[in-house]
């Protein structure tokens, strides 16, 4: 069965609650699609108003982060069950900005991925290499290490339902997109890694996005690649261009 494409916006630390609601209104008609799943991953404070603003549309809401504990003395954190109760369906885990600025390592991310599944959320697990790693020729080894460590204890059924975003760090927010060949090569390597950990059917089912300066001009070529099932979009998700990315065909 063909995998349905999924295009998710990562709003990062942008949009106050009222700006968020206005953006949902602006994008409402532009992101309509029957062929593509559309997700807005929004800052925690925007979740409640955005869930309300997209009611009755084809858009699902995602969080940009969560903590792995159920509840308690973890000041500033948000649990998976809080997200579910607020109407969130997806959660980005392991974005390179969280790995880098907030020192989130694969052991922590593995706990988050497992908790997300336990709560009924779909993780969008990010992986990606630095420019230095690419130049050293260790991109595929690095990605495989991230995927394997982050998925310890995750079942085949869970893995089949998740989303993995390959995001070369050097392409995020820089305007430098990976070439179609580079993006396809790594997304295929991610799928091969899933086949190795689980089986061919799980690898066929898992959806793999490319992320890194996706825009209205390059989305069609990227998304046409056999192992690229959509995109995780930062900057361009905050403007009308996002509609063109969703409707890339
Ligand atoms: C991202 O934040 O995941 C991302 C890919 O950002 P951008 O599209 O701006 O490069």
In short:
42% of the residues lie in helices and 16% in strands.
Envelope shape = globular
* Terminus-to-terminus distance: 20 Å
Number of strands: 8
Mean pLDDT: 97
Helix content bin: 40-55%
In terms of DSSP E residues, the strand content is 15-25%
Helix-strand category: alpha/beta
Radius of gyration, in Å, reads 17 Å
| Total of helices | 12
Widest sheet, order of strands:
1-2-3-4-5-6-7-8
Which spans of ≥5 residues are poorly predicted at pLDDT below 50? Answer: none
H/E series: EHEHEHEHHEHHHEHHEHEH
Bound molecules: phosphoenolpyruvate
Reported for the largest beta sheet, the result is: 8 strands, parallel, barrel
Topology:
Elements (H helix, E strand, L loop, with lengths): L4 E6 L6 H11 L8 E7 L4 H7 L5 E5 L16 H7 L3 E4 L2 H6 L4 H14 L2 E6 L3 H6 L2 H12 L5 H6 L1 E4 L13 H18 L2 H6 L1 E5 L7 H5 L6 E4 L7 H6 L3
Parallel strand pairs: 1-2, 1-8, 2-3, 3-4, 4-5, 5-6, 6-7, 7-8
Helix pairs in contact: 1-2, 7-9
This protein binds phosphoenolpyruvate (PEP).
Describe the protein.
It is a single chain. The protein is of the alpha/beta class and 249 residues long. It is 42% helix and 16% strand. The chain has twelve helices and eight strands. It has helices at residues 17-27, 47-53, 80-86, 96-101, 106-119, 131-136, 139-150, 156-161, 180-197, 200-205, 219-223, 241-246, and strands spanning 5-10, 36-42, 59-63, 90-93, 122-127, 163-166, 207-211, 230-233. An eight-stranded parallel barrel has the order 1-2-3-4-5-6-7-8, surrounded by four helices. Strand 7, helix 11 (219-223) and strand 8 (230-233) form a beta-alpha-beta unit. Helix 7 packs across helix 9. The longest helix has 18 residues, at 180-197. It is globular and about 45 Å long. 47% of the residues are buried. The structure holds phosphoenolpyruvate.
